[in-house]
Amino acid sequence: MPAALYLNVAVGGILTGLLYGLMALGLSVIFGVVRVVNFAHGEMMTIAMYIAVALFAAFHLDPLVMLVPIAAVMFAFGYVLQAGLINVFITRPEHSQFLLLVGIGLIIANVLLIVFGPDAQNVQVAYAFDSFQLGPLIVDATKLYAAIGAILVAGGLFSFFRFTAVGTAIRACADNYTGALVVGLDVKRLYALTFGLGAACVGAAGTMLLLIFDVTPAVGPSYTLLAFVIVITGGLGSMPGALIGGVLIGLTEAMAGLLFNPSAKSMFSFAILVLVLLFRPQGIMGKRTA
Amino acid sequence: MNRQSPSKYSRLTRRSFNAGAGAAIVAGTAPFNIVRAAGGPLKVGVLLPRSGVQAGIGQDCWRGAEIANGLLKELGLPELQLISGDTETNVDVARSRAEKLIGDGAQLLIGAFDSGQSTAIAQVAEQKGIPFVINIAAAPPITEQGYKFVFRNFPTGPMILRDAFLNQKEIFKLVGAAPKTAVMMHVNDTYGMAIKGGVGAMFPKFDMPYKILEQIAYDPAARDLSVEVAKAKATGAEALIAVSRLNDAILITRELVKQRWTPMAILSIGPGWYEDQYLKTLGKLSDGPISLVPWYDPNKPLSGKLAAALAKAYPGISLSTNHVYTFEALLVAADAYKRAGSADPKALADAIRTTNITSNVSPGPGIMFDAKGQNDKLRCSAIQNRGGKLVTVAPKEAANAKVVWPFPPFDKRA
């Protein structure tokens, strides 16, 4: 096979992986701080995708333009969900939290099914079929725009946690829950803020993924599973790990599809997960716990 | 004490009187029942996957059933009373629904779009002795079991593949050109693997002008087919043979455009490329693919009437395989009921066996069944997407347009 083919497939895999990474970043942020495993993560992303579909259908608004407003809506959704419901379950056994979030996921999927129906939906933006040719390399324009968007959103999130007082307070909650309470931080509000940020993150990812993939109410669980594979590979709770995991899984799936049977490409991402669990259980960028 | 029971003399007890009276009532009303069955509409159980994974197709087939009565009346055929049964895209449910419909009084069954579900219904129909007319199901074994009550007016898998090759050769001859190489992309579900196997087995027998360079299997639920299309493009094949469903057909087309690859032809064996959703979603980019599928003969007068009835009932829905073969199954039922003059299952089955409907919709000489209950005279068509519409380009007898060849380049479309 020609080298250009490998190059094209690898670039496509990396670009898709960056979006996967952004989606998983939301899961990682929520778990890293709130210590709640969000089993409704994929379903939350489908909400954002359907909002983008509805806005495009009604007003012809480009998903990339609506990225920030949709992320804001998802932030509000996440904040209210955490403050109104999940905070009540924070001190309860983990299985209660799991069941709660699985239940929320089921409700979201079924409400979307009732409202939008079972058919796959997408947006037909003017650049939907564009691509850039650089010598032998052909780059999908939508994937490129979405990947740039993912890098910007991830960069913004890193900066928020690194350089703002609220971000520092959230990190303090993540590092030492009791210590954060002792110094007078409003932990529950910060948890709600974090869940909101995670939801905004997955909302942004969903809005951009809509440029590449169709959405149906039933796709949520597959994205949740993908996000888990990525964050466990990258390191649960590690923000850079989520992005690195996303790129690794995107690239692996693409190259596996090229070099082996495309039907079996998902198998290779799970193989990576198994290898990581065997040889580096904390993930590529995760911290080893005692 | 000398009193004796009158029964000793008359031999008529209260019990025997009641039994006799009951028998007389049953016997007395039975002829009226038969008369009512013959005079009233035939009760037809329509078994379709109206929910579950195949819900969209099941609903589409039902549209073909809903518009049937008006046309049957126009043809001078008796009215049918349709009783809907949802198989829920599940073989076990299909079996139990068939039993329930028969229990509820269905005198004939039609359905069920899917081979697995149709097989289950066929077993029930045969066991209960109720005629079953299959609308859509291609698995050959259904009509190879020696069933006496099962009939199929739909081509089997080998018939579809045979006609796919024959229609391609007819097109190649007509345009005086043919691809020398092809790459096959197919879904890895039951249908896709069966077609792949069939192509492997039948391809050598048809002396096709091209060589299949590679067969690329993919998951029908795949979100992204960029790698698969890149791989297909890299083979350097002149034509793309696709065995797809709807969503993956759209994904493949998008990738063809993005990866700047316009093959000489896209030849589809199966659904996806001709469906309304494909045409609407892709607009001008949907033009060109040729689907080699069971279709209808646009030159037959009844096709026009069926298309008009569908357009009236469902504006915006184009006539397709689902409507045509569901309607024809009901056409067979109504025709048999008229000729049998009775709803007796055996009489209906005998009448179906001698069906000879030449004024029909599907391509071929008409609807007639062989000893196995299969309409082996059916022909499949080659249809091409043209400006959001579908035209038939082969076989010659059923064509209403000349094929556009080669495939119009994607980057030259406004």
What does this structure look like?
The complex is a heterodimer of chains A (290) and B (414). Chain A is mostly helical and 290 residues long. Chain A contains eleven helices and two strands. Chain A has a two-stranded antiparallel ribbon with strand order 1-2. Chain B has helices at residues 7-10, 14-39, 55-66, 68-74, 91-103, 115-128, 157-175, 190-202, 226-234, 246-258, 276-282, 301-313, 321-340, 345-353; strands spanning 42-48, 80-86, 108-111, 132-134, 150-152, 181-187, 211-218, 239-243, 265-268, 290-293, 381-386, 389-394. Helix content of chain B is 43%, strand content 15%. Chain B folds into two domains: 39-155 and 299-353, 3-Layer(aba) Sandwich (Rossmann fold); 158-295 and 381-412, 3-Layer(aba) Sandwich (Rossmann fold), CATH 3.40.50.2300. In chain B, helix 6 links the parallel strand 3 and strand 4 (132-134). Residues 1-12 and 23-37 of chain B have low confidence and may be disordered.
